[in-house]
Amino acid sequence: MLVDRIRRYYLLEDMNCAETILCAANDEYSLGLDATGLKAMAGFGGGMGVETTCCGALAGAIAAISVRFTKTRAHENPEVKELCKAFLNGFVEKHGVMDCLPLKELYRDSDERFRCMPVIELAAVELEEIMNEVGTRNSYPACDGHIVKDNA
Questions:
Q1: Looking at the domain assignment, is residue 145 inside a domain?
Q2: End-to-end Cα separation, the chain, in angstroms
Q3: Residue 111's domain spans which residues?
Q4: What is the pLDDT averaged over residues 131-151?
Q5: Are 44 and 86 in contact (CB under 8 A)?
Q6: 20 to 30 A Cα–Cα from 72, which one of 16, 82, 104, 144?
Q7: Residue 99 in 3-state DSSP?
Q8: Which residues pair with 99 in a beta bridge?
Q9: Separation CA 73–CA 85 (nearest Å)
Q10: What is the pLDDT of residues 87-137, one digit of tens each?
């Protein structure tokens, strides 16, 4: 389960929110990212370091969706844009915002060990819903070369 994996990366590996989500998703969904690919998320933590933009956990989730459902580039897979929009809209519908600072104000744990863990868990739950829903209803190519079957 994705939430269990994020706890490992955030609490034991000391990764930021964006790194945590993408590393956990890489494991959970066999995305095939190597260490260099995973390092790409380093600058997205803490709302890209300024806290007034999109939460890093959400950015990491968008990266996971992109890697899983894009063959080579975005223009070849317009449904990826729709999946990202569905992910962000679903998150905002449930939590009211998607920017780092307001999410910290709503959910940040006062225990310094856990900091943004509650926000990362919320993002992981939303990501898992999208990944599982798409996997059961659409036929999008996954990055590992497998085709997710259409059960509709």
A1: no
A2: 25
A3: 2-137
A4: 50
A5: no
A6: 16
A7: strand
A8: 54
A9: 17
A10: 999 999 999 999 999 999 999 999 888 999 999 999 999 999 999 988 655
CA angle 2, 40, 93 (to 5 degrees): 50
Is residue 79 a contact partner of residue 67, using CB atoms and an 8 Å limit?
no
Burial of 8 from C-beta contacts in 10 A (0-12 / 13-18 / 19+): middle
Number of folded domains that form the chain = 1
Residue corresponding to tokens 């933590």: 45
Give the DSSP H/E element, type plus range, for residue 100.
helix 100-107
Q: Which of 32 and 144 is assigned the larger pLDDT?
A: 32
Instruction: Give the model confidence (pLDDT) of 25-77 as tens digits.
Output: 999 999 999 999 999 999 999 999 999 999 999 999 999 999 999 988 888 88
Q: How far is CA 136 from CA 79, 130, 132, 139, in A?
A: 15, 10, 6, 9
User: What are residue 141's DSSP bridge partners?
Assistant: 147
Scanning 29-78, the segments in alpha helix (DSSP H) are 35-39, 45-48, 56-69
Q: Which candidate, 125, 116, 119, places its Cα nearest to that of 11?
A: 116
